[in-house]
Amino acid sequence: MNVIVFITAILALLFASNAFARDNEIRFELTDHAGRWFDTGVEIAGSRSIAVATPGVRVKFSGDSNTVHTRTSLLYPTGAAGMPFNTEPRKGGDDVTLTTPGLYVFVCSIHPYMFGAVIVDDPTTAGLDLGSSLSLITGVNFPSSSDLATRLLRTFFIATNPANWQNYASNAPWHITYPDVDVRADVGVVNLAGMLNARYGNDTMLEAFSKPATPAVGEVWVATQFETTAGKSKPGTVSALDGVNWQVTRKVALPSIDMNNPHNMWTDKDQSVIYAAQWFDSKLAVYDRQTGALIRNVSVGESPAHVMTLTDNDRIHVTNNGDSRTDSVMELAPLAIQVLRRIDIGRGTPHGHWMSHDGKSMVTPNVTSGDTTQYNFRSNTIDAILPVSGEFSHPLAIGMMPDASKYYVANMFDNTITAVDMSTHTVIKHINLLEDYDPLSGAVSGPVGAWPIQTPVSPDGKNMVTANTLSGTITVIDTRPGLATTDTVVKMLPCDPGCHGVQYGAKQGGGYYAYVSSKFSNRLLVVDPDPNADGDPSDAGIVGSVGLSAASTTLKDDTVTGNPGMGGQGILPIPLVYNGWVQNLPAFWSNQLTETQRNPIQ
What torsion do the CA atoms of 385, 504, 110, 103 make, to the nearest 10 degrees? Predict the structure, then answer.
């Protein structure tokens, strides 16, 4: 098709649907619905999150979400007027005018896979304008034909079109639909679909599931956050897997409260209830682990992201990821029977926190301020607030050594992990996960992780497994102290699109598994970080992969209607085997562990 004819057709479609108004205006509605978080109401190549306009377009953002969001320019033409653009978390509307031709990608800093894109096109030139150079909000610049640029484009088209997600419940090859349109990049006019297909392939045959040879102890609960059910207007279920037969035994949707995007979970000391934070809402859901029955739904604050308990008193702590005020962690009594207080951490928008084994310390990554807080429960004061990287580095999740000597911060947009000494409150090291990656050619010469997210340390303190969402890789870091390899990446493993959640659980007979989930896939990966039990994680490997879709025997409180098993984010293995929690287990669970697992650090 002639390029001008194609552009004319696209513009006519947009005019007719009001996504591209006659006064050169685009409207994005921010929603809670998977795949169309920035919604124009118009589908282009399967995505309702991209629009085409001409210079001077006014982009308006409105809200139909249960929680707050930012409107943040993740990617834009280098030197573009008015960039970068960034707002505080809020539900109200905002607008920005785009005058420089090129590609703009907007994101919510609170929910950083929410994408909306605008191509501002100069109609006098051939090809839709991407811009010759693009910039990330972190300040990194790169050519628009570079591997980094096209990986970002590929991620956008996967994230915003559920038909592009990896569906292991289907026998069909994995096909990604891209717009079949010519674009103008730094190398001239190229076909977008042709370029992406040539670089990354398409119609990939997906691997068959394979159960680990050694069973796990207990269960694995996964926040299948994008799965939809008949009795709800909001997406999200929590799925339970049996660690022996690796079948999905239960789906908890909680239609009575319209549970909204359950993101991360934890449990009480008896392993009897599950706390699920509803990330696109303001509630913490509490339900019975064995029956799936709702116990209570508690208001905690905007965009509650992660939840954990203190080891010494079982009090619950929830990070209010959308709350820009400093008292952004909510403390609740055991079983969430009462809200006790808001804890002042000196910063807002915390996400994936971690608690120390002795109940003394809590560490939060503070997303929008680029720093981390260490809070002391003994004195109820802040021990330290430390910058971990640049202003827009996006610190997202914490891993902590089991003796609370050190913690690690995954900085998503900065592609680094910062190691911090908990006693001296000093940064020990910045681990660059892109050190062995060439952003121009895409060449990889060693382990690589782009956009790290969850990054827990193993219960015995010997390794750390990180899910990297942009690269679709799992990186393994040697955390054993006093070695030449301490705090270095020693292994890279493949993952699925949107690689996101990680937690450790007990392996029968000793050792641990690290479970890894992905947003845009319905598969759980089982990683053995130390297959030969010598303490060295450099031989870590994937030992199994299991599906997250319901089986005929799966117990459900609602009928699954879409995105089966998709949206894997937070993971909760039962029983909890991290130091401090494992010692409090009831006998039923403790007796299934080895002596070393019951006391992970000697």
Answer: 110
